[in-house]
Amino acid sequence: MYIKSSPPWTATLDVSQLDPGEHTITVIAVNPGGSGYDDVNVLVTAQMQPPMVTISSPSHGAKVSGVVTIQADVQGQEIQKVEFYVDNKLLATLTAPPWRHTLDTSTIGVGTHTIKVVAYNPSGNTQATVTIEVQEAGGQPSKCVIATAVWE
Measured between alpha carbons, how far is 130 from 152 in angstroms, rounded to an integer? Predict the structure, then answer.
């Protein structure tokens, strides 16, 4: 709410903070004696913005092998779908969070690969990409659990 008691008779409204759709702004002018006023209704239509997407895992330049979880952070209104790609090949399409997909790196081979995530809503789409380096699997496992169970 803005109250102005002297010129200039202007106010600034950040419509990016409004939900998409129509909103009514009422302007009331009162004379110095406090009597008589006019009101004007102004229709404002807030536009939906395309979603924002980032890839939180794996990080850009990561050296990976085995099974990797691709984790995307998606912000925005009315998200319709999120697509996951490796080297421009569609891997998965999700329509609800969590926005993540599991990638078996043995299916894409050793070398440099590009992961792309594209998020869609009614106003458009936005994408994020990272490059990863798939390495050969091998060496000693990072954890080894050996258990013995005896049943009597």
Answer: 54
